[in-house]
Design a protein that fits this description.
heterodimer; A: 113 residues; mainly beta; six-stranded mixed sheet; 10 strands; B: 112 residues; seven-stranded mixed sheet; four-stranded antiparallel sheet; 11 strands; 55% strand; globular
Chain lengths: 113, 112
């Protein structure tokens, strides 16, 4: 029979446009959030992180926004490039020295040249 | 600096055989994680160690899976006996407390 896998949401973006990838996290006690990028055949790679005492953090071409009221995280990528095509995961950690990180299911970003 | 090193990168074995996956964390990192990634279930945490001690193994699927960390620079994940449903990509990651995890390249396991 046909196997059913996780249905990854897919975001298709024109090269040069900005991308916004959204994530809803589950635990209101989480105080550390991370975005990872996973290219085909590779392990997840750290992009940017944010702690719960902040609502915005910027990196090179990337910005993470945190809305604790609605438990929502977003990753904005400016001037999206073909090399940005990958699966993006958000992850949360409850802190307090506990190292376990819970990953979301991921969003696939397709950049159209 | 070398990142997290995993071996082998690919493993093909037959059902019932023992499989051992290896991981060398980044030097100085004191936490190590084993994950499994499949199309069906996504990225799942199997077990993690802090200072070589297993802290949370609630993600280990069953007794066929075991993990060890005999020292700060080496860990193994063993499956005995292996089954076709164990086919997946297995990732090792390491970190310092409260910081981001660094992932290895993964081991793609195929159990026939």
């Amino acid at each position: 029979g046909e196997s059913v896998g996780l249905h990854l949401p897919t975001l298709s973006v024109q090269e040069g446009d900005n991308s916004i990838i959204n994530c809803a996290y589950s635990n209101s006690a989480s105080d550390y959030f991370i975005w990872y990028k996973q290219e085909s055949g590779k392990g997840p790679q750290f992009i940017i992180d944010i702690r719960s005492n902040m609502d915005k953090r910027q990196g090179q071409r990337v910005t993470v926004l945190l809305n604790k009221t609605v438990k929502h995280l977003s990753l904005q990528i400016a001037a999206t490039q073909p090399g940005d095509s990958a699966v993006y995961f958000c992850a949360e950690n409850i802190g307090g020295g506990y190292q376990k990180v819970t990953f979301g299911t991921g969003t696939k970003l397709q950049v159209i040249p | 600096d070398a990142g997290v090193i995993q071996s082998p990168r690919h493993e093909v074995t037959e059902m019932g055989q023992e499989v051992t996956l290896r991981c060398k964390p980044i030097s100085g990192h004191n936490s190590l994680f084993w994950y499994r990634q499949t199309m069906m279930r996504g990225l799942e945490l199997l077990i993690y160690f802090n200072n070589n001690v297993p802290i949370d193994d609630s993600g280990m699927p069953e007794d066929r899976f075991s993990a060890k960390m005999p020292n700060a620079s080496f860990s193994t994940l063993k499956i005995q006996p292996s089954e076709p449903r164990d086919s997946a990509v297995y990732f090792c990651a390491s970190t310092l407390p409260g910081t981001k995890q660094f992932f290895g390249p993964g081991t793609r396991l195929t159990v026939l």
